[in-house]
Amino acid sequence: MNSMQSMDRDIDHILVSEEQLQDKVAALGEQISRDYQGRDLLLVSILKGSVVFMADLMRAIKIPCGIDFMVVSSYGGANTESTGLVKIVKDLDADLTGKDVLIVEDILDTGITLSHLLPVLRMRNPNSVRLCTILSKPSRRKADIEPDYLGFEVPDEFVVGYGLDFDEKYRNLPYVGVLKPEIYSK
Ligand code: XMP
Ligand code: MG
User: Fold this and answer.
1) What are the residue numbers of the active site?
2) Is any ligand 1 atom within 6 A of the Cβ of residue 115?
3) Do 176 and 135 form a contact (C-beta atoms < 8 A)?
4) Using an 8 Å Cβ cutoff, are 32 and 149 in contact?
5) DSSP per position, 12-47
6) CA-CA 20 to 30 A from 111: which of 47, 50, 87, 97?
7) Which residue range or ranges hold the Phosphoribosyltransferase domain (predicted)?
8) What b-and-e string marks burial along 19-46, b requiring 16 or more CB atoms within 10 Å of the CB?
């Protein structure tokens, strides 16, 4: 497969390996299974970045749970339901009444998006709303929000892989890495 283009060669360095991700997801799944035993758990994935983490995490959770998906955006755009500073581009299908909602995210950066989304979900009468994120950039935080379940802290670098993209590419990398600078300036 000489002509096959490899994504790996665009990566400057790996921050979190595939094995580290697998081990962490298994541990998070065990902990969530214990914590939510006997509860009406609903996993809420914020598209698109969290789709890889969601697919792995849901299989690491050993208790019954539902899944749902949401698309949000921080800024304008037509045909969206405005809720303060967060726009719901695609809302949940599920009724949250009495549910124990666990938001599944790819990365908590400034925290601004989720700090606006959480009150919106809490208004829908769930039993609880908590946050599980595979990555966090604590040095970038602006809003008063921290994950209830966390995979890895990463430095203030733009990261790709395991769902995270640059220009919609690299989401399918099985690890988290930092792109070579020349990829940005192309
Ligand atoms: P907040 O509101 O926490 O937004 O600032 C978090 C969202 O920003 C995106 N984000 C990234 N996406 N590599 C990415 O591919 C990154 O390093 C990165 N940092 C933040 C991401 O969509 C996240 O949900
Ligand atoms: Mg995202």
Assistant:
1) 109
2) no
3) yes
4) yes
5) EEEEE-HHHHHHHHHHHHHHHHHHTTTS-EEEEEET
6) 97
7) 19-166
8) eebeebbeebbeebeeebeebbbbbbbb
Nearest residue (by CA) to ligand 1, atom 23, is 107
Ligand 1 atom nearest the C-alpha of 159 is 17
Q: pLDDT-derived band of residue 86, with 50, 70 and 90 as boundaries?
A: confident
User: pLDDT category, 74, cuts 50, 70, 90?
Assistant: confident
**Ligand 1 atom closest to Cα of 142?**
5
Q: What is the pTM of this model?
A: 0.93
Which residues fall within 8 angstroms of residue 51, CB to CB, at 6 or more apart? 45, 163, 171
Ligand 1: does its nearest atom lie under 6 Å from the Cβ of 106?
A: yes
User: What ipTM score was computed for the predicted complex, to two decimals?
Assistant: 0.92
Q: Specify the amino acid at residue 8.
A: D
Query: What are the structural domains, with CATH classification, of the chain?
Result: 18-154 (3.40.50.2020)
Ligand 2 centroid to Cα of residue 107, in Å, is: 7
Helix, strand or coil for residue 183?
helix
